[in-house]
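pasting for ref
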Amino acid sequence: MNNKKKNEGQTDFSYYGLYLLDYLCTNKFEQATDTAFIRERADRAAETYEKARLEGYPADGAQEQAMDTLLRGLRYSRYAILREVVESEFFDEVPEEKQEAFILKLMPLVGNVFSVYDLSDDNFALSSDYDLLYTELTGATVLYIGEYGV
């Protein structure tokens, strides 16, 4: 019974709730532990799907709208962007098996770099700000590796 109670908050999520939970955990969003946030988003996505179907959209089109509702403002996580920088720019310096630990160690040290960028903009990766952030993170990582190594 203890295990059932322990897992109850996660296993009774809808399809959209489980999808969002996995997405938030994988990309290390702070909302990954906020069940109210996940339920509210999942409910909104399900409502969007139902409304789209009632309006005559095919299942694929309704699903696309629902996923847009589910993930709006959550396209870019700090972790995912830093992971991209490390994987792309430091593949020779940081072996694949050490990347996860390295990224998690680096995350708190580059928090201030992220603070000036709006990652909730769903088109952030298409902006010049994304390039600036990418460059700043690359520089911060170079400095860190130079000072402390991997």
